[in-house]
Design a protein that fits this description.
By secondary structure, the chain is α/β, with parallel strands linked by helices. Helices cover about 35% and strands about 15% of the residues. The strands form 2 sheets. It has a 7-stranded mixed sheet, sandwiched between helices.
């Protein structure tokens, strides 16, 4: 079966990249921070329904590399989702597979806020909802690769999110944190609004140190979060 790397090299793939980037007038700033080869963990803020991942993926592909993605493990239990996730090079979010990819020299994208960051209401837009998660730091330290903080500015403006419904998401995944957003996009539909997206690769954060040093882990986590939040605040 064709994978996403092969598809993006095709005429249809290149047209899709152009269409996605053109729709959002998307551009990448700080591309020089992204390695041309070798492993790195890209840590980013997350938008609703994953359209921000399409934009980031298209920008990275245009820059010469297609990443792997750490996805919510519950997504792989949703009927019909697994083939699409596998095609896109998404794997269930777990430390060992992520470290294996990084040690092999791959780019890996992680959204520490996960569903909390993605499903936030519009009143909380442009604010990170990471809930103190620091597992991504341990993954990067253990794999011996740097972290590249990524601020995707504009992704929270694709929709107006007014509330969360109390039934369907919980029914699908068995947890209230999956209560689906009630969201309005372009023309009040689920199509995302055409808003400008600027993705900033903010720098290279070295992760050397003892992975059992909780103080080091916390300081790196705080640094990455502050770098991204500061850029979101400034735009």
């Amino acid at each position: 079966l064709m994978g996403v790397d092969t598809f993006l090299e095709s005429r249809a793939g290149k047209a899709l990249i152009s269409r996605v980037l053109g729709y959002f007038d998307a551009r990448l700033e700080g591309a020089h921070h992204l390695p041309k080869e070798g492993g790195a963990l890209l840590v980013a803020n997350h938008g609703l329904f994953g359209f921000d991942a399409f934009v980031l993926g298209a920008l990275l592909a245009k820059n010469g590399r297609t990443p792997w993605w750490l996805a919510d493990r519950n997504m792989f239990s949703t009927p019909g989702f697994t083939p699409a996730l596998q095609f896109a090079k998404a794997i269930p979010g777990a430390p060992e597979p992520a470290m294996d990819l990084l040690r092999r020299g791959e780019l890996v994208v992680v959204y520490p806020g996960g569903i909390f960051d993605s499903y936030k209401l519009s009143r909380d837009r442009h604010r990170l909802h990471w809930r103190g998660r620091s597992g991504f730091v341990k993954i990067a330290m253990s794999a011996g690769v740097p972290i590249i903080p990524v601020a995707a500015c504009g992704v929270d403006d694709m929709y107006r999110v007014v509330a969360r419904e109390p039934l369907l998401g919980r029914l699908l995944f068995g947890d209230a944190r999956y209560n689906l957003p009630i969201a309005f996009g372009r023309w009040g539909s689920l199509l995302p609004k055409r808003v400008p997206i600027v993705v900033h690769a903010l720098g290279v954060v070295p992760t050397h140190g003892d992975v059992s040093d909780e103080g080091r882990i916390q300081s790196l986590r705080d640094l990455v979060e502050q770098m991204i939040q500061s850029k979101l605040d400034a735009t």
